[in-house]
Specification:
By secondary structure, the chain is α+β, with helices and mostly antiparallel strands. It has one domain: Beta-Lactamase (2-Layer Sandwich). 48% of the residues lie in helices and 18% in strands. The protein has six helices and five strands; from the N terminus they run H-E-H-E-E-H-H-H-E-E-H. The protein has a five-stranded mixed β-sheet. Helix 1 runs antiparallel to helix 4 and helix 2 packs across helix 6. The longest helix has 18 residues.
């Protein structure tokens, strides 16, 4: 594993620890989805956005310029987070060259994608409760978009654990 990859894995673990809510309900899930949409519009990018709580979709929006494949990618990335309780990017980076979840765990690539853009929603003292996902940008940018918006919603300063460009 190259040094940059190790550093990214370390920083993503920090992100997952730092980005935790005091509480999270359907209202917070909807608000998070709206913030992801607003952030995407500000950046001038089109993504599909999904926010889930307790495996129930609370917010789903496909921005103009996206396609059905973006929604499918979001579903597949989200499945990884719901299975592993870690960001899809972290899971993908932790796999060795040539490894797959299908080979390691029998999880079909048709339903599980280890690409960046899906992040666990955690509540302090509770743990994993949901997932925030975007799809439409290169995986590192999808991941960064979710992290930045989550940081704002959690009131967290993640500047020391952001991934380097």
């Amino acid at each position: 594993m190259v040094a940059d990859r190790k550093e990214d894995l370390r920083r993503i673990a920090q992100q997952e620890e730092a980005l935790q809510f005091d509480s999270f309900d359907k209202t917070a899930a909807w608000k998070l989805g709206v913030r992801l949409k607003s952030a995407s519009e500000t950046l001038g990018v089109s993504v599909t956005i999904e926010v889930r709580l307790s495996r129930e979709t609370v917010f789903l929006y496909a921005m103009p310029g996206t396609s059905e494949s973006n929604a499918d990618w979001a579903r597949r990335k989200r499945n990884v987070v719901e299975m592993m309780s870690q960001s899809s990017y972290r899971v993908g980076l932790s796999l060795e060259e040539g490894e797959s979840l299908e080979a390691l765990m029998g999880l079909p690539a048709r339903d599980y994608a280890t690409h960046g853009g899906s992040f666990p929603i955690k509540v302090k003292g509770v743990g994993f409760v949901g997932v925030a996902t975007v799809s439409g940008l290169p995986q590192r940018q999808d991941h960064a978009l979710v992290v930045r918006v989550l940081a704002g919603e959690c009131g967290a300063d993640v500047s020391d654990c952001l991934l380097t460009p």
